[in-house]
Amino acid sequence: MIKVGIIGASGYAGIELYRLLLGHDEVEVVAVSSQSYIGQSISDLYPAFYGYDDRFFESDDAVLHKAEMIFASLPAGISEKYAKFCDEHGKKFIDLGADFRLDNEADYKEWYGKDYSEKELHKKQVYGLSEVNRDKIKNATIIGNPGCYPTSITLGLYPLLSEHFNLNNDIVIDSKSGTTGAGKTLTEDSHFPRCNESFHPYKIGNHRHTPEIEQELSKMANEDIHVTFVPHLLPINRGIVSTMYVKLKEDVTFDDVMSAYHKYYDDEYFIRVLNGKVADLKFVKYSNYCDISLHYEPRYHQVIVVSAIDNMVKGAAGQAIQNMNIMYGLEETKGIKMAAPSF
Amino acid sequence: MIKVGIIGASGYAGIELYRLLLGHDEVEVVAVSSQSYIGQSISDLYPAFYGYDDRFFESDDAVLHKAEMIFASLPAGISEKYAKFCDEHGKKFIDLGADFRLDNEADYKEWYGKDYSEKELHKKQVYGLSEVNRDKIKNATIIGNPGCYPTSITLGLYPLLSEHFNLNNDIVIDSKSGTTGAGKTLTEDSHFPRCNESFHPYKIGNHRHTPEIEQELSKMANEDIHVTFVPHLLPINRGIVSTMYVKLKEDVTFDDVMSAYHKYYDDEYFIRVLNGKVADLKFVKYSNYCDISLHYEPRYHQVIVVSAIDNMVKGAAGQAIQNMNIMYGLEETKGIKMAAPSF
Amino acid sequence: MIKVGIIGASGYAGIELYRLLLGHDEVEVVAVSSQSYIGQSISDLYPAFYGYDDRFFESDDAVLHKAEMIFASLPAGISEKYAKFCDEHGKKFIDLGADFRLDNEADYKEWYGKDYSEKELHKKQVYGLSEVNRDKIKNATIIGNPGCYPTSITLGLYPLLSEHFNLNNDIVIDSKSGTTGAGKTLTEDSHFPRCNESFHPYKIGNHRHTPEIEQELSKMANEDIHVTFVPHLLPINRGIVSTMYVKLKEDVTFDDVMSAYHKYYDDEYFIRVLNGKVADLKFVKYSNYCDISLHYEPRYHQVIVVSAIDNMVKGAAGQAIQNMNIMYGLEETKGIKMAAPSF
Amino acid sequence: MIKVGIIGASGYAGIELYRLLLGHDEVEVVAVSSQSYIGQSISDLYPAFYGYDDRFFESDDAVLHKAEMIFASLPAGISEKYAKFCDEHGKKFIDLGADFRLDNEADYKEWYGKDYSEKELHKKQVYGLSEVNRDKIKNATIIGNPGCYPTSITLGLYPLLSEHFNLNNDIVIDSKSGTTGAGKTLTEDSHFPRCNESFHPYKIGNHRHTPEIEQELSKMANEDIHVTFVPHLLPINRGIVSTMYVKLKEDVTFDDVMSAYHKYYDDEYFIRVLNGKVADLKFVKYSNYCDISLHYEPRYHQVIVVSAIDNMVKGAAGQAIQNMNIMYGLEETKGIKMAAPSF
């Protein structure tokens, strides 16, 4: 049994991770922490756990010392010191926040307003997009777990960009996310009477996930890829649908595209390339699947890629567990093999 | 591995049962049937199962012959012949419909408009309220799995009525259910623009679950119990909250009531008597829990019992599996030990 | 044109009042105030008003001086000084808060934790339940506009209690309200991922509207009426459904009850006693109607009264305007004659 | 008073038109029809109208004969005969369906599968995009009222295309609509448990509104404009948000774009070009506004136009009334001057 712990377990990603880890039969959750709720029981915050597997939030230090595999779900700028501790003590570290996702400190500084405090450490970081970086993840000790939007987008475009099928490097990405993406903090936008029966884009052209998306797409394409990325807020709890518009090179056919997606993904358990159906939140919610459907607009020789994920599972806690499974050589689907309830 | 099958697997209760049974590690689902969709794949109807554990809907006969443990989720009047077949062939039968719930054929005739076709068979039926009838369920071969409203109500009142704490036998029950309770059939009431942002009671005083509720409450109380039962339709997918108003006998204190609930339920895994919190759908959804909170109105010496369940799990598929576990001597929580996701 | 003003216009009731008053062709809104947003434009908070009838929030004093008819929508304890000013300057005052609803200062003290600062003033207050107190409202200068739950309940029970049809004075009231009832303040309970797809009762037996409900029902019945009142939070924006359970005296028939409701309400424009339909939020939302349906449970000789209102209109701003219309001798439906959009 | 009638008043657009027309003080609704519900009262279908302005659905003929201004909201292929009757009898006709929107019969045949039966009549049709075609509408007798998606899109792009600011003629349009867009007919997609908490695109590249969108955009641009149009289904009742991506010619600045929108729209009552806010369904619902916000992506010299309308008002019934007002020389805002309720 792997001794795992969660730092920042009181937030949405942290508690989802806790819920999923409890169903994983090769791990033991040895400690969870929350700076705000230290000493309180989990069920005080989330009564769903009352009588199930309730316990107290401990200190971050307790997690660091008791666990060998540490997950952290924290605001930007806090994870580095914990990662350093893990690095020095031979523990593995998966960061669900943004501190280990960006390769260039300048990007981090620009979008998160901070410097890296442990610059050397970042050389060890691996971007935890499980299906794409599996080999690197195997031997990694520090994982930057991908953001929710980036997961939906990079998985959606990976075969297309890797095969250099795109005509030019400008891609339109219109994403829609449920409200859990904004987390537990009370905000005007998530006040029920404000959010319910409403819909709107937000942070047009300046969402913090933009550099992460472009960094990973550029690596896939081996060239600089810039995207127009517009996120929208869906008045539902969970899930991200990204609708992506890409022009194809003249000599590439839609069949080529379909074949590429099947080649890259047919062996991937958690990625389903749909035939004849449209990707839909309904069928991925509460699961670790990423559903992808491909559509063709002949007049512009354009592909429309639709991807659907659960932002809290494949977009956060589920992929973190998938990465842990890879790091420990476990069956990759352990603890996260679930079909979405259809209602 | 127990060979299980589901007749009527294309409906909401049937497919939920299928989803849950796939996560039960001591059963093998050998066949599922649907008269309407025979030959079609499950994922045609419910794409959530695409690539997960997809298969074809077979005939009812196929299920009857391949499985040793048969679940049926069918409209009233169809189950009896299947139960008879099982009875004659030493198979176990759990009916999620209404055909084996009522003790008196007259009640069945009155509320469902049909006679029993296999009268003798009904002597063998056991009402599958797991926590209350566990001993009978152990040796049963034909289970009438409780309705969703009756489950939320009878579990909510069991200690109170068994201890004869109620002053008189009239109890007000105000229940609220999500829309999956009405199933897969398209209706005006479940048309999205009609149902969304709406709320209303329905079938006031004439809901088919009334005789079932009164039958079971009367057994618990050892006297005729009549209830005023008003169901309401919540514009959400899942869950039932029942708010129940019961006057106490003069010499019974609220402490007596609390003690009774703890005595009856503290050893029950799936029933949580809350202390200081109010029962809430949020914390039971997608789980097999029944949460109960007790509240006291001193001016009338009245107890208000609030119970919350997921209508599709504890109110249908989950309790059916719990009953199967009991019948086969398995750990009772097998396959249905899940905490609700908190969002 | 009546010069009206709103103190506390930035809250939900205040801004709804503003919206409705703009459609009233015999009033001119001369000023609106907000202590928190003074100097900001209405459209900063509520962009719906951008280019429509936008203006700045002024000081409370500005409203008091410019308007002859002052509406106030404020937290408990602030209205009295404004009412006093109006009283001294011959202006009319309608308080949408709780400061002028309770007849007994002791009740106010118990439930709101404050003393009355202007005790004499309270002798002039009239409870603004338009249909019931119309004659007193005509000549009133200070109106305590009813709370949302009390409106749905007192209108629902008025004929029944006035005719002394109820067997005893204990009545069960199970109410369900949309989230706007809790207002604009961010709370855990109104955080979208928490509230959405959830449902639960709250403040069981201790909601502040209880003394107001009992005070008014007692006046109608000419005897002390106590109620068991349990409010629930609906995951929708607007509306209150109250389901009320009342036992009838032996010699009273259900026909008597129906006749009484028709007698009391057939001439009331805003109260619809339904025949053969069930009261439903869908058909009162965004309107000033109170729909009432009556149902009979013969086994207990019990009437179930269902009432449905829009909590922000008939339960707040709409009824306030109705009261103003009565006070000024205008057509009572002026500015509030609207059918609910059916979707 | 203009004598107006509605053919096909039982559908969603028809009943919304009825609701709005009842608040218009220069018209009298003299008859409404429904082939399916002839002889039934409106309140049987839509209880919101009970006691408000209830009446019976009459025959289509009755409407044709009693009214001078006829609105029709019918499936494709039925309106022409009614339009012909109006044409022959000097009555005005506004078709909320698709029969008089397309200039080329070939397009109609391709997308709706039918020929025009009254070919000459179509020479008289005017596309009722009020702000754009106001002058033609003034003298028109047959109006093809725009579809909901086309309204949100053509108004959103009008200044940009008219000024020829777009670099090339391929535009990406990602639209999201509430469920009322699909109307009153029961479908799997609008079954509450299916639709609720779900989200997905549909009819990618083959939605019937595509030829209408391209026809009107091409007229504005004076060149063939083709669009990539992907509609999505929002799990809410009302509203359309269209997010549109357009590359600018090199010498056009974003300031030029902003100026153009202000020039074209600052005098338009129902079009609000937002400054510093993002267009949002919340602030247009139940109103006739079209809110537009403009955003700039410098890396691609690309404009992102976001438009938000209520699909049933500006996208159907409201614009129909606006067109009637124009045809009759009334104040254009008559009967449709409403601010959205903010919750």
Q: What is this structure's SSE topology?
A:
The structure is a homotetramer of 343-residue chains.
Chain A: E1 2-7, H1 12-21, E2 27-33, H2 42-45, H3 60-66, E3 69-72, H4 79-88, E4 92-95, H5 105-112, E5 125-127, H6 130-138, E6 142-144, H7 148-162, E7 170-177, H8 192-195, E8 200-201, H9 209-221, E9 226-233, E10 240-247, H10 254-265, E11 271-273, E12 290-297, E13 302-309, H11 313-327
Helix pairs in contact in A: 1-11, 6-11, 7-9
Summarize the structure.
Four copies of one chain form a homotetramer. By secondary structure, the first copy, chain A, is of the alpha/beta class.
How does this model look, in words?
The structure is a homotetramer of 343-residue chains. By secondary structure, the first copy, chain A, is an alpha/beta fold. In chain A, 31% of the residues lie in helices and 21% in strands. Chain A is built from eleven helices and 13 strands. Chain A has helices at 12-21, 42-45, 60-66, 79-88, 105-112, 130-138, 148-162, 192-195, 209-221, 254-265, 313-327; strands spanning 2-7, 27-33, 69-72, 92-95, 125-127, 142-144, 170-177, 200-201, 226-233, 240-247, 271-273, 290-297, 302-309. Chain A has a seven-stranded mixed β-sheet. Chain A has a six-stranded parallel β-sheet with strand order 2-1-3-4-6-5, with helices on both faces. In chain A, α6 (130-138) runs parallel beside α11. The radius of gyration of chain A is 20 Å and the shape is globular. Chains in contact: A-B, A-C, A-D, B-C, B-D, C-D. The interface between B and D is medium-sized, with 18 and 18 residues.
